[in-house]
Design a protein that fits this description.
Elements (H helix, E strand, L loop, with lengths): L2 E5 L19 E8 L6 E7 H7 L1 H10 L7 H13 L6 E4 L19 E8 L5 E6 L1 H8 L4 H8 L5 H12 L1
Antiparallel strand pairs: 1-2, 2-3, 4-5, 5-6
């Protein structure tokens, strides 16, 4: 797949990471992907700062190939360095930011701000991504006796009260 950095031609595109419009004239990061709607390829766009956090390797390569000047390059480099060292290790637990996800096990919605367990799942065309579970469903779905220890190790954004609640929900 191809990646590029270019100046936004219009203000109609939305960032695939933060879902906010990409302002006309600002630099954006593009990634070519198979089209979900027809045969062929399509471009998906990101704010340069959003892409630096979620796709540091691809953005670094696109920045090296870009001929123009990149504003705030030092800040982007710092974001990419931080993203390179941040573990994206499954499984982890977090608070659901929206109420749109469904449990992989029971297929019921996961309420906004409820604890959820993220596990790696296979998506289309060999890609992988996060799939979400209610903590009460996670033990049966994951079938790993080390799940509670892995969740404690990988769940960075949870406080002690959240971890205690997670343990109670995992237990049953």
């Amino acid at each position: 797949m191809a990646e590029t950095i270019e100046t936004a031609k219009t203000g109609r595109a939305k960032c695939r990471a933060c879902r906010q419009p990409i302002e006309k004239g600002s630099l954006r990061f593009g990634e070519e992907q198979p089209s979900q709607f027809a045969e062929g390829m399509q471009w998906v766009w990101f704010h340069l700062s959003c892409a630096a956090k979620s796709k540091p390797v691809q953005v670094r390569a696109a920045m090296d190939a870009f001929d123009g000047e990149i504003p705030d390059r030092a800040a982007l480099e710092a974001s990419m360095a931080a993203a390179d060292t941040a573990p994206t290790v499954f499984p982890y637990a977090e608070r659901a930011p929206t109420g749109r996800s469904r449990c992989l096990h029971c297929r019921e919605p996961i309420e906004k701000d409820a604890l959820r367990v993220a596990t790696e799942r296979e998506l289309e065309m060999g890609r992988t991504g996060a799939g979400y579970l209610h903590p009460r469903c996670a033990r049966a779905f994951v079938e790993d006796p080390e799940l509670p220890a892995a969740l404690r190790r990988n769940s960075r954004g949870l406080g002690d009260a959240d971890l205690a609640e997670l343990d109670r929900e995992l237990a049953g």
